[in-house]
Structure to design on (536 residues):
């Protein structure tokens, strides 16, 4: 279980990126975090990845505090961030260097075929399309078998068709390996299609404004009525959180005077 | 899914064609590039042979090649080439090692850069020939002062190349290494070194080029052998064919050593799209 316990994050320039954010994510759950830009959703993910430190509060994985990158936590960035000097296989095996070669190669072959790129092991990253590169990045993050996989808007730079096919890849992987997925996105449809739970955040300071449980059976129909209804609820909540903020913004200078 | 695989197959089919085009284009470019000097050489040869020009100060190609052949036949040419090559390589090696180490130290942190870089930039703006009197006083007129001068010439491009490459390494790539919990040492070996390698090799090639420039200056300051000595000797004895023969040898040697350096580094850079055309 991933526990985010009353986390604050204040940047050195004084920006309050996160303000008392609490969230519990069960093992094997898919949680989507949505919100406008500047609501701290990426900051939250970087804290959970151990790349940054919380100013107050802590993040625990199964009772263990996360203060640096953890072997059970994988992160997929917005861009593939493949290492151009390694082949696809080299990239996927990047986090497995402690394993003997035979075992490493078996895992690489296995995860590559799971993302449909078994024939691409010896290719260079520059030879891949954007969608393929992001699939390699997913394979790389999955290769060490993390319990928790964090995804930071991983599909936002892709075209709609490629994005939809990547959604299926991620769901297949999730069904097979059951990692906990925490997905940051600004795409409400993506959140509603993939997640068990959708967390809506509002900006300045970044806070959780509402949480939706989506009890929709899988596989889901991307264009089904229940998904549409869920999307509408999430969008309304987002809208409202933004309106609250602008009302709050008007009040602040008045109070300061 | 199927459409994606189809698109991949299409991209695959397209790649061999482009490499064929590239190699035939290289042939055409080679011919075009060599056309002008060949035409000029033939024209000059013709003009001198038919009495339209004297060719005393600017000997025709045949005489230059004859001089070159005679020098080679007596074994003198090889002695001079050997001496010059040894100086260039020694100076290049010293300058490269120093440039790499100092560049790495300066690139290691903002503080070290702010301490080292201004002084080095100041030294860099000194014309390197200005060091000659000092090096002669310090190191004498023999090999040491010559190699030191060449090393100074090689040092700066290598230093700047290493420093620039380190500071331009993408923070995002480093973050990938952090996510996989690499130690500082592993971060250097598995992320930093491969990331700076292309820029480093480019800097080495620039350093080697400057090494060839500085060896001439070094050999002007009094040498009894070497291609620079041949130049001075040709000037003093009024033998323009010998001067041109050594210039030609410089050009060929410079090109060969640069080509060897580039070829030796290619296996490490196959991943890089832009490398081959830049040659």
């Amino acid at each position: 279980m991933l526990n985010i316990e009353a986390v604050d994050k204040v940047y050195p320039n004084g920006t309050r990126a996160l303000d008392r954010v609490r969230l519990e994510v069960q093992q094997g759950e898919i949680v989507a975090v949505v919100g406008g830009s500047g609501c701290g959703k990426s900051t939250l993910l970087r804290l959970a990845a151990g790349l940054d430190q919380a100013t107050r509060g802590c993040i625990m994985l199964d009772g263990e505090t996360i203060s640096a990158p953890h072997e059970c936590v994988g992160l997929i960035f917005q861009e593939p961030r493949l290492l151009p000097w390694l082949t696809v296989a080299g990239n996927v095996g990047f986090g497995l260097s402690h394993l003997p070669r035979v075992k490493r190669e078996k895992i690489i072959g296995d995860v590559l075929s799971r993302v449909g790129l078994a024939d691409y092991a010896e290719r260079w990253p520059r030879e891949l399309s954007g969608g393929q590169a992001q699939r390699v990045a997913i394979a790389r993050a999955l290769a060490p078998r993390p319990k928790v996989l964090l995804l930071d808007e991983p599909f936002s730079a892709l075209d709609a068709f490629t994005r939809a096919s990547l959604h299926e890849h991620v769901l297949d992987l999730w069904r097979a390996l059951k990692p906990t997925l925490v997905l940051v996105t600004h795409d409400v449809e993506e959140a509603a299609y993939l997640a068990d739970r959708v967390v809506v955040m509002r900006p300045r300071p970044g806070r959780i404004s509402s949480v939706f449980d989506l009890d929709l059976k899988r596989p889901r129909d991307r264009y089904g009525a229940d998904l549409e209804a869920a999307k509408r609820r999430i969008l309304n909540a987002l809208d409202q959180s933004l309106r609250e903020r602008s009302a709050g913004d008007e009040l602040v200078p008045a109070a300061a005077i | 899914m199927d459409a994606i695989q189809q698109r991949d197959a299409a991209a695959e089919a397209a790649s061999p064609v482009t490499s064929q085009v590239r190699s035939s284009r290289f042939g055409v470019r080679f011919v075009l590039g060599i056309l002008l000097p060949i035409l000029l050489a033939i024209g000059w040869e013709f003009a001198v042979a038919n009495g339209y020009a004297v060719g005393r100060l600017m000997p025709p190609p045949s005489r230059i090649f004859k001089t070159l052949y005679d020098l080679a036949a007596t074994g003198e040419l090889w002695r001079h080439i050997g001496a010059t090559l040894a100086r260039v390589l020694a100076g290049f090696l010293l300058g490269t090692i120093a440039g790499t180490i100092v560049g790495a130290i300066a690139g290691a942190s903002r503080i070290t850069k702010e301490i080292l870089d201004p002084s080095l930039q100041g030294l860099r703006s000194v014309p390197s020939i200005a060091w000659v009197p000092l090096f002669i006083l310090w190191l004498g007129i023999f090999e040491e002062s010559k190699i030191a001068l060449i090393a100074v010439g090689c040092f700066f491009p290598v230093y700047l190349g290493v420093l620039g490459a380190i500071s331009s390494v993408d923070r995002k790539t480093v973050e990938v290494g952090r996510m996989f919990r690499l130690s500082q040492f592993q971060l250097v070996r598995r992320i930093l070194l491969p990331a700076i390698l292309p820029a480093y090799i480019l800097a080495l090639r620039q350093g080697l080029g400057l090494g060839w420039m500085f060896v001439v200056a070094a050999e002007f300051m009094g040498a009894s052998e070497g291609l620079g000595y041949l130049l001075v000797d040709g000037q003093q004895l009024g033998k323009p064919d010998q001067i041109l023969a050594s210039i030609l040898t410089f050009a060929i040697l410079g090109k060969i050593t640069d080509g060897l350096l580039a070829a030796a580094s290619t296996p490490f850079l196959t991943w890089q799209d832009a490398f081959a055309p830049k040659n």
About this structure: Confidence is low (pLDDT under 50) at residues 1-5, 7-16, 275-279 of chain B.
